[in-house]
Amino acid sequence: MWKFLGIIVYAYTIYDVVTSKFANPNDRLIWILIVLLLPLLGTVLWFVIGRNKRI
Q1: What Å distances lie between residue 36 and 30, 43, CA to CA?
Q2: Residues whose CB falls within 8 Å of the CB of residue 2, separated by 6 or more in sequence, listed in order
Q3: Percent of the chain, pLDDT > 70?
Q4: pLDDT band for position 26 (50/70/90)?
Q5: Residue 23: pLDDT above 90?
Q6: CA distance 52 to 54
Q7: Which pLDDT value is given to residue 37?
Q8: % helix / strand / coil in the chain, to the nearest 5?
Q9: pTM for the whole thing?
């Protein structure tokens, strides 16, 4: 069950990054790479600092 919950959170993170509006289009690409290459750390970083950086 924890694995399924982790996959759901990870998928939501990717969706949230892709659908967010950024001042610079390169920011989206950078965040997608961070989340894809560092799944656990990237997800935590997105929710801690990334969501505050979008417009």
Answers
A1: 10, 9
A2: none
A3: 95
A4: very high
A5: no
A6: 6
A7: 97
A8: 85, 0, 15
A9: 0.85
What is residue 55's DSSP assignment?
-
Token pair, residue 26, equals 């390169």
**Closest Cα to residue 34, out of 6, 14, 52?**
14
User: For residue 9, what are its two tokens?
Assistant: 């959170």
- Residue 31 to residue 46: CA distance in whole angstroms: 8
Q: Distance between CA 27 and CA 52 in Å, rounded?
A: 13
Average pLDDT, the chain: 91
Instruction: Extract the tokens encoding 6.
Output: 């982790």
* Eight-state DSSP code of residue 24: S
Q: What are phi and psi of 6, to 5 degrees?
A: -65, -40
